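Lecture notes, unit on protein representations.

Consider one protein chain, 99 amino acids long.
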Amino acid sequence: MTKAELVEKVATQINLTKKQTEVVVNTVFSSITESLAEGKKVELRGFGSFRIRQRNARIGRNPKSGQNVEVPSKKVPFFKAGKDLRQMVDDKKTQEQKS
């Protein structure tokens, strides 16, 4: 699902225009992004949580030249699905396998 599809689906369910819904969706995404940038975690009960993980520096390899390259340490966003979401996806998968 794309962001435009999400906006359209939400707009039909809450009877707002697509423009108004787009503002709401963008606000939610920017709030999550800003919290993660500040080093905070974002937890959406029943859905999952967004956190920042620290990746250590390491020696990588340039696939084109084969040379070793130093990859610096960095922070990356990480999403962990909540129990309800995991169960819903698993139940859907199980139903599709039975069909």
